[in-house]
Amino acid sequence: MRKELSLFTVADILHHFPFRHIDKTKIDNIRDLNPAMEFAQVKVVLLSLNIAGSGRAKRLVGLFRDSTGIMEMVWFQGITWVEKFLRIGTTYLAYGKPGFFLGKPQMAHPELETVSLESGLKKFLEPVYPSTEKLKARGISGKIFSQFVDDVFNKISSADLPEILPEEIIKKYKLSGRFEALKNMHFPPTIKEFNSAVRRIKFEELFLAQLHIQILKQHRKLFSKGWVFEKVGNYFNSFYNNHLPFDLTGAQKKVIKEIRSDLISGKQMNRLLQGDVGSGKTIVALLCMLLAADNGFQSILMAPTEILAIQHFNAIAELTEGININVKLLTGSVKAKERKKILDEAASGDLNILVGTHAVIEDKVQMKNIGFAVIDEQHKFGVAQRAALWKKNVIPPHVLVMTATPIPRTLALTAYGDLDYSVLDELPPGRKPVTTIHRHESARSQIMDFIKSQIKEGRQAYLIYPLIEESSKLDYENLMKGYEEVKSYFPEPKYWISMVHGKMTPELKETNMQRFVENDTHIMVGTTVIEVGINVPNATVMVIESAEKFGLSQLHQLRGRVGRGAEQSYCILLSGQKVSQEAKERLGIMVETNDGFKIAEKDLELRGPGDIQGTRQSGTINFKLANILADRIILETARDEVENILKIDPTLESAEHLPLKIYLDNFKKNSDWSKIS
Ligand code: ADP
Ligand code: MG
User: Is residue 390 in contact with ligand 1, taking CB distance under 6 Å?
Assistant: First the structure.
């Protein structure tokens, strides 16, 4: 059995929780069984036992009765064992999902227990354990396991399972003790005790996960050295006072202050900057890079795609016109001669800011004195690439990771909990929320007419086709078909159309993109390669074809391409007539809200935490009982309490925190633990 369940220690066994409890005092009549019942328990006498069928259809059929009727129980596996176990004329408690065959009730592989006078109804709530198929096939696995756990609890006491959580916290939140909670997870006297046990275990799980994360973060803060950017100098001041084209939002100011305090702390910064699409992350990054330059340091800004890198470069070049700073662009398509010049300037220190794709972290790029690195849209970067950054100077540069994929707060607290975290939770003033509608194929010509009316007013439109796989031929065919169709609605020379997709050469992509940016073309037909970051404030319509094929965060990203200027913008989600329930839900959410954080929470809910793009350390987001969404209040409480404890007692030296220290030490020593999960 040990092998079957991959359980290793007694502690593991005690943490192998039942997935439900059966109320053993409740007995159903055979007469009352119906197909809607999830589970039923009958008290029945065995009348006869027969083998039916042969080969793979071979099965054991028992006929049972109670005072209200007769039913069959069927076994397809473990026949020999069950046959030996059953005695005709004996009374059993049978538990399982009632099924119906030709209108007659039956149960397949029920859990069976003999009813003797003393033991029959001894426990009020009996645990039912998750087990492997092989064990279940014997029809009794849960029973044996339950007896085993019962045995363990008879042999141990609370001294064997000492408390881990500080007493003060137990008192403050009225938590059950550890031993009591574990016992009541398995054998609760009442539902009330079971619920307290669940609450205690969830608290413990989230508390310990927070402890791990915050210790990690603390360790980094205590021991990692970082460059000190003491000065606010000429670059920053002259830009801020003379070249900033708008007032910063309150959120931008707040975030810059947060970053600045990291930059003078003497510790290396590792900060995640979250900001919904259009919240103005670029300017924050630029101001930080100017601070770096003021202190004699070089910076890099790394974007996930060439188009984005170019756009960042153009934005920064434009913004910094008039201040004497050296900004260069390095991507895979920069020609050898220009590349050499850039590399020379990087090495000599003449270069202040290097913008580019992952080309900027290649070994060939030697910076004289890099002090600051910005990673835009970080989920497209791997850990290895981030590690490459570390080698670029004697002390690693400060790192600002920017993402527009809103990460739900709860996930940020857990999966990304060891990074510091800033949010741009305010959009620049004057933005009108995008109006989103969902339409079916049949509305196509109306939609095209609508685009025409927008173009007439001088606006531009995007038409996006799904590209599920880069290599999918069908997706490209659909895109090309779509392009031809759009061309027939919008004939040249009255209308001009750009097209961008992943199979184009970078030059062609860039030309097409650039024409759209310059309002030289009216319509951009493309795939999700335009998804991140593209900024064309004059575009007011985003049509998403086959919208049911996109995930929520992708839809939100795409919608973020419009609504960036002063005009009212529209997002039109086009789908087939029939879409799945889940797709319907996704489209419904998009229509309902523009709030990226709400959408991210919904995404998390629909897909589950393990599936969210860019998540790491899955061990910190998947728990036995706790759910970071449903239990977010417990999560935040646990986070606060861990923070308080580490503030007062950072190395967990006090007697009250000793159990936590021992727990962490054991955890480190026994690396097997991490493998189990
Ligand atoms: P994102 O956070 O999506 O990367 P960007 O940095 O591209 O957003 O900014 C989106 C647009 O908003 C840009 O055109 C930028 O110039 C503009 N912007 C940024 N901050 C402000 C502000 N405080 N006031 C007005 N416009 C701003
Ligand atoms: Mg951006």
Answer: no
Domain containing 89 equals 2-155
- Asked if residue 549 lies in contact with residue 479, where contact means CB atoms within 8 angstroms, the answer is no
User: Per the confidence metrics, is the pTM higher than 0.70?
Assistant: no
**What CATH number is associated with residue 384?**
3.40.50.300
Tell me the pairing of strands 69-75 and 104-108: parallel
Examine the domain organization and report whether 404 and 334 are in the same domain: yes
Give residue-wise pLDDT tens across range 411-461: 777 767 777 889 898 888 888 889 999 999 899 999 999 999 999 999 999
CA-closest residue to ligand 1 atom 16: 280
Q: Which atom of ligand 1 is nearest to the CA of 249?
A: 23
d(CA 377, ligand 2 centre) in Å: 8
Q: Is residue 186 part of a domain?
A: no
Question: Looking at residue 78, which CATH number applies to its domain?
Answer: 2.40.50.140
Residue in the structure block whose two tokens are 């970082």:
226
Q: Are 389 and 441 part of one and the same domain?
A: no
DSSP per-residue string spanning 422-467: EEE-SPPTTPPPPEEEEEEGGGHHHHHHHHHHHHHTT-EEEEE---
pLDDT at 612: 44
- Categorize the per-residue pLDDT at 379 as very low, low, confident or very high, splitting at 50, 70 and 90: low
Q: Whose CA is nearest to atom 26 of ligand 1?
A: 428
Last residue of one domain, picked from the residues 155, 183, 199: 155
CA of 281 to the centre of ligand 2 (A): 6
Q: Which two tokens stand for residue 312?
A: 């960042």
Establish if 446 belongs to a structural domain.
yes
Q: Starting from the CA of residue 284, give the closest ligand.
A: 1
Give the tens place of pLDDT for each residue, 15-68: 888 877 877 678 899 999 998 888 898 999 999 999 998 888 899 999 999 999
Would you say 434 and 544 are in contact if contact means Cβ atoms under 8 Å apart? no
Q: What is the number of domains present in the chain?
A: 3
Q: 338 and 444 share a domain?
A: no
Please write the tens of the pLDDT for every residue from 506-542. Answer: 788 878 888 998 899 999 999 877 655 577 899 999 9
**For residue 618, pLDDT beyond 70:** no
Confidence of residue 471 (pLDDT cuts 50, 70, 90): low
Q: Which of 277, 282, 305, 556 to mutate to test the pocket of ligand 1 (most atoms within 8 A of CB)?
A: 282
- Cα 305 to averaged position of ligand 1 atoms, centre (Å): 19
What is the spatial distance between Cα 295 and Cα 394, in angstroms, rounded to a whole number?
16
